[in-house]
Amino acid sequence: MTTTETDTLRRILDYSSRADPYPLYAELRETPVARQRDGSYVVSTYREIAGLLHDPHISSDVRNLARPMPSHAGESTPAFINLDPPEHDRLRRMAMRHFGPPHTPGLVTGMEDDLTAVVTTLIDGLEDKERIDVVDDFAYPFPVAVICHLLGVPREDEPRFHLWVDALINSIDYNPETDPKEKLENGLRARKDLREYLGGLLQRRHGKPGEDLLSRMANDDGPDGRMTDEQIVATANLLLIAGHETTVNLITNGMLTLLRHPDVLRRLREDPDLVVPLVEELLRYEPPVHIIPWRAAYSDITVAGTLIPKGAQVMLMLASGSRDPVRFHEPQRFDPDRRDNQHLGFGSGIHLCFGGPLARRETQIALTELVRRLDRPQLVTDPPPYRRSPILRGPIHLEVTQGG
Amino acid sequence: MTSADNLRAFKREGRIVIVGASLAGLRAAETLRDEGFTGSLTMIGDETCEPYDRPPLSKQVLTGWVPADGTALPRRREIDAEWLLGVPAAGLDLAANHVRLADGREIPFDRVLISTGVRARPWFVESEAALDGVFVLRTREHAEGLQRALAAGPSRVLVIGAGFTGSEIASICRERGIEVTVAELAPAPLVGALGAMIGEVASDMQRSHGVDLRCGVKVTRLEGDAQGHFRRAHFDDGTTVDADVAVVALGGIRNTEWLRGSGLAAGVWGIACDTGCRALTLDGLITDDVFVAGDVARCPNPVYEYRLISLEHWANAVEQAEVAAHNMVSPQADRWPHLTLPVFWSIQFGVNIKSVGVPTFADEVVLAQGSVADHRFVAAYGYRGRVTAAVSFDNAKWLDHYRGLIETAAPFPPPGPTPDQPLDMKPVPVDFPGPQLLAQGATVVVTGHDPGERRVTAAQQHHR
């Protein structure tokens, strides 16, 4: 280990690198598995990350870390994303029953008209504006409306839980060396408040079968039985947060990338079908989830010749893996015609993004319509200002002028 | 055809004939065009329709969810070929370089790809096989007929043979609320492909879904009524079963009879080839203008001691066809070996079964993750202390890890605890049916004494 390697990760996590972490990822990849000063391991190359995502010796349960994380302490009922089989499999199956094939195959396709309607309404409101913020005016309200509708969360409560979700996501990035303790405590409090809020909504769903996910989870008995209220709340919590930050960033990163590649933007306007491979390339080139930070080695495992000891924290640098030149031809090029695009944008293995099919369709519709209807959009600031998080990465505002 | 100029000329205006117009044939044709072959391309197929996908036939088609004619294979590009459909090939003349069709036509070629696949093994008594209500399942027509018979609401279906196809059919019957009896010669379903441990799980799955499963028995006679409709089956233990539909699911027969006399190493196990998909002659020499792909190919796999293995797997047909097509138009130095590990999947009784590697190449098996009782697990297979295959039940997302273990000859049993590990993780003998069930006797006879006169001739024992 050299100090440089440890230093690279520190620079990536530093906010000043947020606009363009990719040169630092290239530095990281020089050492595919790099031990950090604190005993954690950073994995940055495609093959190694993909291998670990399918390795049963890696645990997603933070309680298996040699030094458990303070931000997850005392969590009695984790969401399935933070659990291992067999509990993970059972809870994910029970949630998936209502969210996708084979039991609910038409969920995403059945929402097409609704998704288009929300997008159309939002863009109608932008048409005459010379200057718009793609985030506040469009990329945020759209997926949040969708996830609220899906879950059965009243849209008018959005300002309340928006604050909780923000505090919660901030606490995920919590760094005990540089961050105030207050940030962690805010996160813990927000986590508790959000759970209480969702628990309250759930109480009113019992015995009242309905179409939203909360009602379905509360009233449906599948082959795996029924979820406890705590499990439903943990699941709803996960879906609400995931619905907030990831799709917003994907749409925003997408619009930013298109504005930076006017030739591709023009092609998309002329050929809307291009959006399908384009969104895949986006998930590789500018993904919303950059890092899976908290996996634990369940046994001693050897990766690319480096031994990761049992209990060690493993950070999987997904966005770096998706730009690994060993795996992708000219990885720094945005190429919607790319073939064999097995990116890590949604992760892989048993935790493969649960909402992936929905996020894909939302982004496809959003970008097609934005490009079709905005009048000669121009980027105001490049790079735009970014959100704090190095993990869930995306612009906090994206100012665009049109009609000029 | 070795010099670069010749190859360029061949790519520009050569003649390629593909015998067998199904998945492997179609993908090979597409790849040939992708690789820049602009010469003439002829597709020969014995069925009258264009290529279609077979996995749905025993699944979505039988449930009535997808119509049989809704399974056409997607065309990934224009292939600009001449299609000779509805006429089977009847011979291959490697001296004159032409394929002879059953109607007497002779189709000349510079290079030929053989992808004639397998057909369903019919019931062994012709008059009984001809009874109304007796089915096999391989083609679109078969699936259409069987789906109609199931939709008519039979009182009971008899499935003869509990391999993958038989088990999938039994599963569909239960899904449709139809009573079903499964008769299997081996001690359990799937045991020939996956061994005794999985066989027990499969038995359990069938019985818990209400299948009348009878193992270790042989069906001796199918009995019809006066109208020629199947009514009853007799077993070798003296028992009988009354049913309206019988499905014969006894595996396939490789379509190699038409190659008799061609000089190729073709027989009941398929057509032997090298990893470059070039066919072998009976003497074991590599041909240069005859290529093989798909179910009918018997290809050595270095991971499995270079044994010649033929696979009836969808992914193998695609990958082998692409390698064969690439090699047909590439110079020696640019040729690819067909080296991918076999992958196979099945869906039955609501469980997704997937395998990687060759489970029959094993002496031990161990439950590596999950629980057999819950029908959710990964079983790892080992041969002499290394991992050679893995099979998952509703746990397919882990299989890439096991693929890595197989490719790197990792020690068996696989090391280290995992979160979802069974308490009793002890390897047990894999226990496949004995050689008498698997071996079909000699396929060749060797004659001659001096090296110059040593020759191989085929022992003709093609099954009907």
TrEMBL record, chain A:
| InterPro entries registered for this protein in UniProt | Cyt_P450 (IPR001128), Cyt_P450_B (IPR002397), Cyt_P450_CS (IPR017972), Cyt_P450_sf (IPR036396)
Kindly state which keywords UniProt assigns to this record, in alphabetical order. Heme, Iron, Metal-binding, Monooxygenase, Oxidoreductase
Could you confirm whether the keyword Oxidoreductase appears in this record? yes
Show the SUPFAM superfamilies listed in the entry: Cytochrome P450
From the UniProt record, which GO molecular function terms apply? heme binding; iron ion binding; monooxygenase activity; oxidoreductase activity, acting on paired donors, with incorporation or reduction of molecular oxygen
Where do the coiled-coil regions begin and end? none
- Could you say which protein family the record assigns here? Belongs to the cytochrome P450 family.
Listed name of the protein: Cytochrome P450
TrEMBL record, chain B:
* One Pfam family matching this protein: Reductase_C
Q: Where is the FAD/NAD(P)-binding domain?
A: 15-321
Question: Per the record, GO CC terms?
Answer: cytoplasm
What Gene3D superfamilies does the entry give? 3.30.390.30, FAD/NAD(P)-binding domain
- Annotated Reductase C-terminal domain residues: 344-414
Q: Which cofactor does it need?
A: FAD
Q: Alphabetically list the UniProt keywords.
A: FAD, Flavoprotein, Oxidoreductase
Question: What GO MF annotations does this protein's record show?
Answer: oxidoreductase activity, acting on NAD(P)H
Highest taxon listed in the record's lineage? Bacteria
ATP-binding in keyword set: no
Q: Give the protein's recorded name.
A: Ferredoxin reductase
Q: Which organism is it from?
A: Streptomyces collinus (strain DSM 40733 / Tue 365)
